[in-house]
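Async update (no meeting this week)

Hi team, since we skipped the sync, here's where things stand on the single-chain job. The sequence we agreed to prioritize is pasted below, unchanged from the tracker. I ran it this morning and attached the output directly underneath so nobody has to dig for it. Comments welcome in thread, and please keep replies under the output.
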Amino acid sequence: MPDSAAERFQIPSMRDRVSPEEWQARIDLAACYRLTDLYGMSDMAANHISVRVPGEDGAFLINAYGMLYEEITASSLVKIDVHGNVLAKPEFPGGLSYGVNRAGFVIHGAIHEAKHEIACVIHTHTWPGMAVSSLECGLLPMNQTSMRFAKIGYHDYEGVVLDLEMQERLVRDLGDNNALILRNHGLLTIGKSVGEAFNAMHRLELSCRAQLAAQATGQKLVEVPQAVVDATWNNYQPGTRRPYGVMEWPALLRKLDRIDPSYRD
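Output:
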């Protein structure tokens, strides 16, 4: 008999039911969920990270609504299209039938449909992200890390993202940026790879934490000249440097493998 709840909640492997390319995408996405939790950016079963399914136009993978980030595996992910239709889902134990949160496919489906070059979308509700999203000043380019997001997009709060009519405005406000602050809501980043999107979210989260820490002192902030901010922002752009995530993503996977390799199941 199983001796733990984790063993009882064993999801049958999807490996033989998908292409090798999709299986690798599942491993990377499951790793991203685990890392997002490990770095303190999860919100129990809420929020979403999605990745486009290679070779399947309009299909992407997302979390089953009801699972914690720390327990997500490659086989637990649900495949849906940009309209929220379930294309494939795992067999959950115990008679459970987890679906997909509507807000997830409304936000993620809009971006995957509009930006075919984007592989991964990450959305979080961290306390630093929610705090900065609620400040009129938004994210300040007050240090080198935050200057990477000096031209970040903003999307005004319209309520819980359930209305498909919000999709066009969401994509418009994201524009050509790789990050978006959802006012009074949270943070969103995108990338051409899972590693790139995670790198952006980690740095955006760090920027929010640093800003709140500095503002909490009540001291006057040092203002960086706009020309320096612009030059620093430019140094962070894809055309100036190598893509983000390429170097550290394998190291992050090794980190997870040392802690708990079950994300690969």
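Quick observations from my side:
The chain has a mean pLDDT of 92.
The radius of gyration is 19 Å.
Reply here if anything looks off.
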